[in-house]
Amino acid sequence: MNKLGAIIGLLAAMFGPVPPTQNILTPIQNNKFGLYVYAVNDYADAAAQLVNTNGGDWGYVLVPYAVYDNDFNKWDGFFRQLKQNHLIPIIQLWDKREDKNTAHAAAFLNSLPWPTTTHYVSVYNEPNDALFWNGKVDPVNYAHVLDETINTFKAQSPQFFMLNGAFNASSRTNKQYLDEEEFLLQMERAKPGIFKKLDGWASHPYPQPNFSGPVLGTGRDSIRAYEWELGLLKQHFGVESLPVFITETGWAHAEGQTYDRSYYPAATTALFIKEAFEKVWLPDQRVVAVTPFTIKYNAPEDHFNWLDDSLKPYPQYNAIKEMPKVAGTPLLSPWYVFFPNIEAKLRQTLGN
Q1: Would you say the C-alpha torsion 114, 349, 77, 55 has a positive or negative sign?
Q2: Residues 230 and 242: beta-carbon distance below 8 Å
Q3: Cys staple from 220: which of 17, 37, 135, 228, with CB 3.0 to 4.6 Å?
Q4: DSSP-assigned letter for residue 138
Q5: Number of CB atoms found within 10 A of residue 22's CB
């Protein structure tokens, strides 16, 4: 971390902590619309044009962050872009390699100019899938990692709002996956009370089978999978009332580098995602944010893209852009309110 990052972290601490739950409990309005993006300024612009239109303001973006990344200039610039675009970041930790990365990530992320007082962090991604956990499903290890990460981030700043790494709800146990319910039970046995330490619940409710299920389906294989997960938390661990952050979801469309006829055409999936917002996620007061996967990714995942290779929007982008929205009223970072240009002034003063 450079001098600017250290000073920014110090100034943030001087303003004092704001209880994390205030950002959810006190806003008069919350704009649930969001999108899964990456730390690219053009993507922040495209996300803002999607979620903050037609009455909307202060929508969300899910942004993966590799825990060993120390490129302060990149992330500082990207966070300032988020502030400019009125976007609330949900940071998803990514690619854990060494224990020391946790403390580094907490300090590094705390040094960034968050636009809101609440700093949302999801602790890795689908750990019940061996592909995303060093080639081996290990609920005991993940329970310890989650516990350590929550403790480390909270010690760095109580403004961190800690979410689990969203699970693959639809997969049953096989060589690659462990059924989510069994995974959670083993986590609890390894770290009793681990789920009571969470501030919110991250979920990946995809429409199955084949990412092509019905809009109004129910259960663990549907876009309501978070309801099934909340039921498990209540039944097994006595955990209730966690706010839900849908950090991935969406229908795969046939269009991509190759046309895949096993999926619906993009014009059809656009109707599905619009109906999902209208009939499922917007009316559900438990859901805080919905960030569908993904703005743009390489093949074969390009069937989930919201922008094509030439950055032209797929139909679902325009369908959601045109939906009526509300202007969110999150609690803003004090320096966003009082010192909107503080980073630029400090950079000039320090010669960075």
Answers
A1: positive
A2: yes
A3: 228
A4: -
A5: 14
> How far apart are the C-alpha atoms of 84 and 73, rounded to whole Å?
16
For the record, the structure tokens of 341 come out as 């240009």
Query: Strands, DSSP E only, in the chain?
Result: 34-36, 59-66, 87-94, 119-123, 160-164, 201-203, 244-246, 287-290
pTM: 0.91
Could you give the CA distance from residue 142 to residue 188 in angstroms, rounded to a whole number? 11
Find how far residue 40's CA is from the centre of its chain.
16
- Letter for the amino acid at 179? D
**Rounded Cα–Cα distance for residues 79 and 56 (Å):** 20
Peptide bond connecting 294 to the previous residue in cis, omega within 30 degrees of 0: yes
Task: Give backbone dihedrals phi and psi of 89, rounded to 5 degrees, phi first.
Answer: -80, 140
- pLDDT 10s digits, 296-338: 999 999 999 999 999 999 999 999 999 999 999 999 987 666 5
Q: Which amino acid is at 324?
A: P
Task: Write the CB contacts of 311 (distance below 8 Å, at least 6 apart in sequence).
Answer: 42, 46, 296
For domain 3-350, the CATH class is alpha beta
